[in-house]
Amino acid sequence: MFVHLHRVKKSYGTGETAAVVLKGVDLELGKGEVGVILGPSGSGKSTLLNLIGGIDHADSGTVTVGGSDVTGLNDNGLVEYRREHVGFIFQFYNLIPNLTVGENVEVVSHISKAPLPIDQVLEAVGMLDKKSRFPRELSGGEQQRVAIARAVVKNPQLLLCDEPTGALDFNTSRDILKLLQSINGDYGTTILMITHNTAISAMAHRVYKVRDGEIVETLANASILPAERMEW
Amino acid sequence: MGLGRKTRRTILERKAQYFGTAALIALSCLLYTLFNQLSFNTDAGTAAFVTDYAQEDASFVTAAPLSGISGLEARFGLLIEQGESFDDTVSEGRTLRVFAEMSKVNKYAVIKGRPLSAENDLLLDPAYAKTNGISIGDTITIRGSSFTVAGFMSLPHYIYPLKKESDLLNAPGSFGIAVIGKDKYKSFETESHFYSVKVMGNAGTNADAKLEELKKHLKQQGTVILKWMNTDENPRVTLSTSKMDSMKTIGSIMPVAILLLTCVLTAVVMQRMLARESVIIGTLYAQGYRRGEITRHYLCYPLFVALGGAVAGTVLGLAALRPMLDYMTGYFNIPIASVSLSITHLAVSLLLPLGLLLVSVYAAIRRKLVHTPIELLRGGGEQRKTGFLERRAKLDRLKFAAKFKIREQLRSVPRSLFLLLGVALATMLLLLGFTMKSSIDYMLKDSYESTYKYRYEYMFNSMRQGAPPNGGETFSAAPFASGPGSPINFTAYGVISDTHSISLNNRNGKPIAFDRVVITKPLAERLNVKPDDTIKMVSKLDSRLYSIKVDEVADSYVGELLFMPLESFNELLGFPAESYLGVWSQQPLNIPDHELLSSSTAAEMRQAFDSLTQPMQAMLGVISLLSFMIGLIVIYVVTSLIIEENKDNISLMKVLGYRKKEVYSLILNSSAVTVVLGFLLGVPLLVFSLKAMYRSLADSAGIVMPVKMSVVYVGVGFVIIYLIFELSKAMSKKKIAAIPMAEALKSRAE
Questions:
Q1: A73–B contact, CB cutoff 8 A
Q2: Residues 362-391 of chain B whose Cβ lies under 8 A from any Cβ of chain A
Q3: Alpha helices of A112-169 — where are they, by DSSP H?
Q4: Shortest Cα distance, chain B CAs vs residue A110, angstroms
Q5: Do residue A95 and residue B749 have CB atoms under 8 angstroms apart?
Q6: How far is CA B686 from the centre of its chain?
Q7: In sequence order, what are the residues at sequence separation of 6 or more whose Cβ sits closer than 8 angstroms to the Cβ of residue B564?
Q8: What are the tens digits of pLDDT across the range B541-557?
Q9: Looking at CA atoms only, how far is residue A168 from chain B in angstroms?
């Protein structure tokens, strides 16, 4: 499996104030697949994503991505891991406001070993004509497209999306999901997505339902629905 | 209002910004208080010379003793007193000018100790005593007589004890003044005398007229006046005044400049805080807080910062006042018994920062509060338009790092402007000391040493004729003004045509012959004349007007001087042929003391220079420290602001896989260009300011100095400024390291 989590535990705080967020999670996702993590607020979804993305350390258990043990990496190792292998997409885009669209994508391309051409990626997300605009001059959907371009430009093996449509309306959300699906198809990028929206699970190869720090159900989806046909 | 705790916590959370601002205010208040209270006290001391110690309005030397002094006093409404002095060579290279006590004019002021009472009592100038390790009660010997040092004193016509009037610097290590009782003085049988004149009553503008009348009368009586000097031309008085005036200028400009800088900083800090707190302000608004209440809350920040800084700075300034006054009186012998305080300056120091900061912050808050609560709740205040410069900047061809840094500087123009001005000010202060040293180095070392080739100078107390003492070279000198009532005064020298004692070059570096009329560059600049122009000059001795054609201008900064052949000099002034007033020589001459008005050696100039260098180095150190502190605070505060504003971006970069060094480089180096620009701006600003300052020095004290800025010093200045920048970066790295990646994962909407 491309992504493999084995008995991963994570808690915050110590002693009486300790909060156990993940209670021994097991998860598997194949290369080139799309995975969706579903769960209510506070269930541990984001923590799970942070551990896979190398943003946080697990207390115990192992996280393996592309055959590399992420839990065994030190801080510098995690930097290199995030730099080369993982792309992030956030709910609120997290673009740098005083950089143009093109420059926001360049934020990642200039530290990557073999980035894709910026114009090519911007064209792929439909933002090439707005390359010189500043984020505040764009709609939410457009900003998320830029964020996707920024994540994709390094051609990562794994794309981690934290509620990528959480701040968008239905039509824009569907456009974004379509874009992610096409990236998955075109580049073979493995995608792991957090969402509240159960309808999105229709486009995933695997669906993980998280509750109270545990994966309570894993579903394999044999009939992937194209994003443009999804409704909610 | 329950927001008091919020103020305290916010200040403590952003210590660098608030304490940095307070430190800048403290610094400006310290300087303001120190310089202005110093001026207040020295002004009072100087005024005391005129009122309490009967400072002369003029002094003169005649060829023969004056008779009928009381008649002259009554006729012209003057006080005239004969003064007497002689120079005693205490040891090789050390001279003490001993004055007889005067009772009507130029009365001595006791600074420490007691007045003269016993016959062998002596009073010394404090700088000489301090430099030579002499204490009250010590015994010193003068011409074989033992004297007890009864105390330290100052003389109203020797506030800045220069050996020669043409000197620029006093050298307490080699020259000092002393006063002894009149009766004791008589026992030394010297013939050197001068007359001190004070115009009676409220002299004001008619003092000059009365002095002119006296001069005219003496001339009509056939009295030969060898030397005449009004007090406003006496460098021993005016140099101290001009130096204190320049201190006043520094005292009024520098702290206000720092204060204005602080206002910009505080306004920037406050605007940033208000931008961050849009939602909080909106919430307070929505909860029913009135605009006045919110305004009052946010005014607490500048109130604490301004009050804290002003009180700390003022107190420190007052604490430094006494030691500084003691230091000053060591150079300018001003009678200051006790320290008095100017309430006006005290009030300004405490209230000006408060007023300026409250106004600037009030304006920023009111701008924020024009938004409706709903706009603020939506982060309305934070959503700003893209700036004109940001939009216009064409950066496509640049590398990403360069683009990022430029955009960061364009993001907040006030912040970048503050950094620019702060670095420019720090640069100016840093290079001020260096440049002044370069100028004085050039003027004294290069100019004086290359011009004056003699080793000994002897001035006679009466006109001489015939062959000079063996090995001596004759010359004469007389004071002139450039026209009746003109403030431009200069000395004209009559020198022999083949002189080996003076050497001057023209603009092309070629030696000038002394068979013609030569003026120095500073004088040519002040009179605005060039070779072959004719100048008008009025003798200070007999008030006659002369016209003389200038043949050459010497490229020398030794002073405002005119040189002409000695024969022409005598002929022009109607002196007997082959007469002279002084002798220059390469070796010491055996001339009896009683024939001399003064004697000096070229080595004394070197000593004077050395004696200046020491306090100058101390001053250089203080100014450098000041500039270091200003530079560090400004750069550190701006760096903190940049980090604060980029918290989310830094966090994002970490998430995206940026290495520590890459984050440091992008964020911390973004100000590098502004720092360099600030330095480059500071250099011409300093040259411009120094030129203006030197011009005013030329007007007030007749000293013309070139602005010399050594490339080496500029290089050293740049290295220091850049090191400050590097230090500030090093101090800020911790803050960047402490920003968690989780910041990027929190919700953030553009």
A1: no
A2: 383, 385-386, 390-391
A3: 118-124, 140-152
A4: 7
A5: no
A6: 14
A7: B492, B493, B494, B495, B516, B517, B518, B548, B572
A8: 777 889 999 999 998 87
A9: 12
Per-residue model confidence (pLDDT) at position B749 = 42
| Residues 6 or more apart in contact with residue B712 via CB below 8 angstroms | none
pTM recorded for the entire structure:
0.71
Q: Are A172 and A140 in contact (CB under 8 A)?
A: yes
Beta-sheet strand order (sheet of A206-211): A86-89, A158-162, A190-195, A34-38, A206-211, A214-220
Q: What is the DSSP letter of B370?
A: T
* Tokens standing for residue B663: 């984050």
pLDDT for position B409: 87
Token code pair at residue B41: 């006290």
Phi, psi of A151 (to 5 degrees): -75, -35
Q: Check pLDDT > 70 for residue B698.
A: no
**What does the alpha-carbon distance between residue B737 and residue B432 come to, in Å, rounded to a whole number?**
38
3-state secondary structure of B191: coil
- What interhelical angle do B672-701 and B711-738 show, nearest 10? 140
Spell out which residues of chain A touch residue B653, defining contact as CB-CB under 8 Å: 107
Helices B647-656, A75-85: inter-axial angle, 10-degree rounding: 80
Hey, are the CB atoms on B749 and A167 less than 8 Å from each other?
Answer: yes
% of chain B at pLDDT higher than 90: 27
CA B448 to CA B455: how far, in whole Å?
A: 12
Query: Which ipTM was obtained for this model?
Result: 0.87
CA-based nearest distance A160→chain B, Å: 12
Interchain contact A142–B (C-beta under 8 A): no
Q: Looking at residue B582, what is its pLDDT? A: 92
Structure confidence at residue A205 (pLDDT): 95
User: Could you tell me if A134 lies within 8 Å of chain B, comparing CB atoms?
Assistant: yes
A48 vs B: CB within 8 A: no
**A119-128 contacts, C-beta under 8 A, 24 or more apart:** A121/A149, A121/A152, A121/A153, A122/A149, A124/A149, A124/A152, A124/A182, A124/A183, A124/A186, A125/A149, A125/A152, A125/A179, A126/A179, A127/A101
Comparing CB atoms, the residue among A55, A99, A143 nearest residue B407 is A99
Distance from CA of A223 to the nearest CA of B (A): 32
Inter-chain residue contact A55 with B408, CB threshold 8 Å: no
In chain B, % of residues over pLDDT 70:
91
- Does B392 contact chain A (CB < 8 Å)? no
B741 touching A (Cβ < 8 Å): yes
Nearest by CB to B656, from A50, A56, A82: name it. Answer: A82
CA distance B251 to B267: 24
Exposed e or buried b for every residue in B407-438, given b needs 16+ CB within 10 A?
bbbbbbeebbebbbbbbbbbbbbbbbbbbbbb
Q: How far is B372 from chain A (nearest CA, A)?
A: 21
Q: How far apart are CA B100 and CA B103, in angstroms?
A: 10
Could A143 and B750 be called an inter-chain contact, meaning their C-beta atoms sit closer than 8 Å?
yes
The torsion angles phi and psi of B198, rounded to 5 degrees, stand at -130, 130
B656/A106 CB distance under 8 A: no
CA A8 to CA A71: how far, in whole Å? 10
pLDDT at B381 over 60: no
Considering A99-108, B40-49, B68-77, the range whose residues carry the highest mean pLDDT is A99-108
| Contact state of B750 with A99 under an 8 Å Cβ cutoff | no
Find where tokens 């007999």 sit.
Answer: B542
Are the beta carbons of B535 and B464 closer than 8 angstroms? no
Q: A13 with A22: CB under 8 angstroms?
A: no
Q: How far is A16 from chain B (nearest CA, A)?
A: 23
Residue A67 Ramachandran class (φ > 0 left, ψ -120 to 50 alpha, else beta):
left
3-state helix, strand, coil in chain A (%, to 5): 40, 25, 35
DSSP string covering B707-739: ----HHHHHHHHHHHHHHHHHHHHHHHHHHHHS
Taking the C-alpha atoms of residue B439 and residue B75, their distance in angstroms, rounded to an integer, is 48
